Amino acid sequence: MSNQTLLDHTTNATKQADTRAEDLAEIIRAYNDVTDKVAESHARLESEVTRLRRELASTNAQLQRSRRLSALGEMAAGIAHEIRNPLGGIALYAQMALDDLKAESALDNVENAQTHLTHIADAVRSLDGIVNDVLQFSRDIQPRKDWLDVQALFEQAVSAHRPEIASAGVRVELDCAAPCDGMVHADIGLLHQAILNLVRNATEAMSRQEGERRLILKARTVGGDDRLTIRDTGPGIDRELVDRIFNPFFTTRHTGTGLGLAIVHRIVDAHGGSITVHNDNGAVFTCTIPRPNQAAQGLGAKAA
After folding, report:
1. What's 239's DSSP letter?
2. pTM for the complete prediction?
3. Least packed by Cβ within 10 Å: which of 80, 154, 200, 216?
4. Using one digit for the tens of pLDDT, what is the confidence trace for 16-51?
5. Roughly how many angstroms between the first and final C-alpha of the chain, as a whole number?
6. Would you place residue 76 in the very low, low, confident or very high pLDDT band (cuts 50, 70, 90)?
């Protein structure tokens, strides 16, 4: 190969190398441009996500505040409605008692005045019950759970309403047979209150109608849940009212605050459970209380 040919080859190789170097530099510049744009786009996206999160948090806070205000408004309206009736009665009977005592024959009217004062005392007790229900419904519920004897819970709730149950001629049946180990994992005070409210509602419902009056309290363990069922043979619940039955201050009775079932719902919900109602020759309320897996397994091992 001549020197000229070698020189030409060298020159061509150098040009090709320079071209490749320029191409590589262009690729690197393009890569850097793309990388910069991606980084810039990523930064913009992060900023946008942060902004949207702040807006979402603000919107959620406003929504929660709106819901709280709405609930507070409904509660205030319900409380005002419930309190107005006994307050009106107190004012009326107080005036009647004063009129009797101011009359010329006041001594002859003492008995009437005593009757009016008795009505006032009854109205005050009604107000006290309303306040207690409102306080119980509005308080923060923090269950202190332990393993409880279901049979004992049922018996205590029935015993607390024994006079009303006897007066209404209600026959009570307790059913804690298998599949149920007789235990439920819950707060004893809260669950007692929930069962108490359900027993009272069932007894009052049956007392208003003729025919057989039976109250059945049943416990079953299904999977990892305990199901406590309170069944009565009363008139049941109108289908149109089922979706509203657990709303605060909703009631179909002439007396009561309408907070009893709302309190039951809150108690069961605080235990991570649920409560349902349906009609089957009367009203059937079912409280589902979840069991902690490890505790349930340990309890089962002890029973074995």
Report:
1. G
2. 0.61
3. 80
4. 655 666 667 777 777 777 787 777 877 888 888 888
5. 99
6. low
255: three-class secondary structure by DSSP: coil
pLDDT tens per residue across span 273-294:
999 999 989 999 999 999 987 4
Give the class (CATH, top level) of 1-139: mainly alpha
Q: Evaluate if residue 196 carries a pLDDT over 90.
A: yes
Sheet order of strands, 225-232 included = 171-175, 214-222, 225-232, 283-290, 274-279
Q: In degrees rounded to 5, what are phi and psi of residue 129?
A: -65, -40
**Phi, psi at 287, each rounded to 5°:** -100, 125
Q: Give just the sign of the alpha carbon dihedral 205, 207, 212, 217.
A: positive
Rounded Cα distance between 62 and 252, Å, is: 34
Q: How far is CA 113 from the centre of its chain?
A: 45
Give me the pLDDT at residue 112, please. 77
Supply the pLDDT for residue 103: 64
Residue-wise pLDDT for 111-153, tens only, equals 777 787 888 888 787 777 777 777 777 777 889 999 999 999 9
CATH of 146-303, one of 3.30.420.40, 3.30.565.10, 3.40.50.1000, 3.40.630.30: 3.30.565.10
Distance CA 221, CA 63 (A): 39
Cis bond upstream, residue 179 (ω within 30): yes
* Residue 291 per-residue DSSP state: P
One-letter identity of residue 148:
L
* C-beta atoms surrounding 123 within 10 Å: 20
Of 230, 232, 267, 260, residue with least CA distance to 246: 260
Q: How far is CA 94 from CA 66, 123, 124, 129, in A?
A: 41, 11, 12, 20
Residue recorded with tokens 């490749």:
20
Distance CA 193, CA 233 (A): 22
Provide CB contacts within 8 A for 269, sequence distance 6+: 275
